[in-house]
Design brief:
single chain, alpha/beta, FAD/NAD(P)-binding domain, 6-stranded mixed β-sheet, 5-stranded parallel β-sheet, 22 strands
């Protein structure tokens, strides 16, 4: 049993470090618990080719920009180096190798149990990230498939797949970039795209699309999509010719309504148009040597990579209830106090203006809310995580 502290932060990734720095600047003591032995553990596990899809100018954590010498879209290794430097600059010293196995609210305090320690705090900030548990769908006949099946969390680069025929399942940003990486390593890459999609360019006329999204941020989503639709048609072309069906609503509505980020194109569409990456519909079932698709086509593959996302699964350790998280353990709010006193989430709101930018905004709001309670102020948030303040 450790002495009580004011705030416990779970996770030492971008969200946990940002919260820690903001609390430090507000004079609020906190303890950061991290299940691995390094900061930014999720970034260390991602595939080698990964770069930020959002420009560094809009993706820095509070109080510290990305290094000037970094490119506009930093690499995975550069992001890791930035997180290490961030922790060092703000003298954040997470307690490593502390996997939280239970967290509950008891007698007006949060009790947090790791595999070998017990902690108490007035406030609990969960910043463990969306990538806690891979989402692993299963299809009929999968056990009979003679090839390799792995989740994108296990994929590092395309070198082992040179000259192999590889199917990537999923059309999110990971799936799109893994398809590029496979092609660049000499694999025959294909994509299985089950549902209609939206695709946006990473830049328009040299301007990061995130910057445009920030400018349009206060406009109604459907109006924004209507204004942008003609531009996207000109830039992206008619993608239905290549087997990609269009969602009935635009990218911004998709983010806010479905909680899903559209594909931010970094070269996937060009490879599809040039015939280097084939597009198939959803999988119906596996065969011994490949896959049967929903349209009846059957193709052989040497490997299948599941770029099917993750589930946050905070309910695996947090004892709360349906007012706090849904059936997949995804928090119902982020960046504000939940229905349970002293409980906050950071980094769980899918933002149309970039996740790292949103993490910084949420971290500031959370630290302000915790500091505000000390001053007799109460902060309340709306459905978009924006805070309103009133006298407590």
């Amino acid at each position: 049993m450790h002495p009580p502290t004011e705030t416990i932060v779970v996770g030492a990734g971008p969200a946990g470090l940002a919260v820690g720095a903001c609390l430090q600047q507000a004079g609020i003591p906190c303890l950061i618990l991290e299940q691995s032995d390094q900061v930014g553990s999720a970034w260390r596990r991602h595939y080698d080719r990964l770069h930020l899809h959002t420009a560094k100018a809009f993706s820095a954590l509070p109080f510290m920009p990305f290094p000037q010498e970094y490119p506009r879209y930093p690499s995975r290794l550069q992001v890791i180096a930035y997180l290490e430097a961030y922790a060092q600059r703000f003298q954040l010293e997470p307690r490593f190798n502390q996997q939280v196995v239970a967290a509950r609210y008891v007698n007006s305090r949060w009790e947090v149990q790791t595999q070998d320690n017990h902690y108490q705090a007035q406030n609990l900030v969960i910043a463990a990230g969306y990538t806690r548990e891979p989402n692993l769908p299963h299809w009929a006949g999968q056990e009979s498939f003679h090839g390799t099946v792995l989740h994108s969390s296990q994929y590092r680069n395309g070198a082992p797949f040179q000259k192999q025929k590889v199917l990537v399942v999923g059309f999110g940003n990971s799936g799109g970039e893994i398809a590029i990486d496979l092609y660049e390593h000499g694999a025959l890459a294909a994509l299985a795209v089950r549902s209609p999609v939206n695709v946006i360019p990473r830049e328009l006329l040299g301007i990061p699309v995130l910057a445009i999204g920030i400018v349009q941020g206060k406009m109604p989503p459907r109006l924004t999509d209507a204004l942008n639709a003609p531009i996207l048609r000109v830039v992206m072309g008619d993608l239905t010719r290549y087997g990609l069906r269009k969602l009935p609503h635009g990218p911004r509505t998709q983010i806010l309504q479905d909680g899903r980020i559209p594909l931010i194109d970094v070269g996937t569409i060009d490879l599809i148009k040039r015939g280097h990456v084939a597009v198939y519909p959803g999988i119906e079932q596996f065969t011994a040597d490949g896959v049967l698709f929903a349209d009846g086509r059957q193709e052989p593959f040497d490997a299948v990579i599941l770029a099917t996302g993750y589930r946050p699964r905070v309910n695996a350790f947090l004892e709360a209830g349906p007012t706090v998280y849904d059936e997949n353990g995804a928090p119902r709010s982020s960046g504000q106090e939940t229905s349970l006193a002293g409980l906050y989430f950071c980094g769980y709101y899918v933002s149309p203006t970039g996740m790292l930018r949103e993490i910084g905004l949420e971290a500031r709001r959370i630290s302000a809310a915790i500091a505000g309670k000390k001053r007799g102020m109460r902060y309340e948030g709306d459905s978009f995580g924006r805070l309103k303040r009133r006298e407590g």
